[in-house]
Amino acid sequence: MRDFTADHRWLSINTATVRRQRGQDWPLLDILDACAARGIRAVSPWRDQVHAAGLAATARAIRAHGLELSGYCRGGMFTHADAAGRDAARDDNRRALDEACELGAACLVLVVGGLPGALAGHPAHKDLAGARAQVAEGIAALLADARERGMPLAIEPLHPMYAADRACVNTLEQALDLCDTLDAARSGALGVAVDLYHVWWDPKLPAMIERAGRLRLLALHVCDWRVPTRDLLEDRGMMGDGVIDIRAVRACVEAQGYAGYSEVEIFSSRDWWLRDGGEVLDTCIERHRRCV
Ligand code: ZN
Questions:
Q1: What is d(CA 188, CA 193) in angstroms, rounded to the nearest whole number?
Q2: pLDDT (tens digit, 9 = 90+) per residue, 144-199?
Q3: Residue 108 CA to ligand 1 centre (angstroms)
Q4: Which of 87, 127, 151, 234 is geometrically suited to a Cys-Cys bond with 269, CB 3.0 to 4.6 A?
């Protein structure tokens, strides 16, 4: 297992972690400057942040700083009540792939979608099995585009509390079943993003990490699970402030040969988003050394 205590060369910052500090959007190009100034070597930006900064300008800044992208957030949202919605999602996912290529991302992260309309508060139906079938179809179609571009797809299972509105793939096992069905040859084009916030509780986690193996492990997202958790979406903890045995999971992942970045991804409207962005980045560096 790699020693993270002496430096932060394997730290990546998911830029949602510092997207909105003290009530103001922190512009992506400024975030990149602040990361580079601290010797942070990798980031994982969100599409809305990239669009606000401009794709070409973002790509230039990434190259100028010599930054790597541990992933690109995000594609997916495959579930829709009608064919027009599914076609629009397909087009949008293709654009996401193109952007990921332009930025040189390691993978496109997929949040697959839940019941159609649920995110907006109006679920079109209660057919979760049907939604899951639509996800499989959506990934199968997108996989062809991903292969063409040489951009791997990373399915991110989300905690079951998001099954209705964000993602109906909720365990690593489910994600790996999809991988095995759609990419039986383990080509490297399809894998998983292991986000500790979503999967830390799963009794099958070690076994599923082993099942995934190096070829399917495309990303590792870290944060912590606060007790109590006060908000389902925006109360992720800084590493060390919760109950996840982060190092134990990292040991499992690295035992399979994973040698990529550990990406800090924290949505925190009650704490970390209320602080100065530089302070948050400095804390990420310190906690990455001490707790990851
Ligand atoms: Zn994540």
A1: 13
A2: 999 999 999 999 999 999 999 999 999 999 999 999 999 999 999 999 999 999 99
A3: 11
A4: 234
Nearest to 219 by CA among 175, 276, 278, 269: 175
- Distance, CA 46 to ligand 1 centroid (Å)? 11
Looking at domain 11-291, its CATH class is alpha beta
Helix 246-255 vs helix 205-216: crossing angle, to nearest 10 = 40
Expressed in angstroms and rounded, the spacing between residue 73 Cα and the centre of ligand 1 is: 8
- Identify which of 66, 41, 58 has the alpha carbon closest to the alpha carbon of residue 264: 41
The answer to whether residues 243 and 229 touch, using CB atoms and an 8 Å cutoff, is no
- On whether the CB atoms of residues 29 and 58 are closer than 8 A, the answer is yes
* Centroid of ligand 1 to alpha carbon of 195 (angstroms): 5
Alpha-carbon distance of 232 to 76, in angstroms, equals: 20
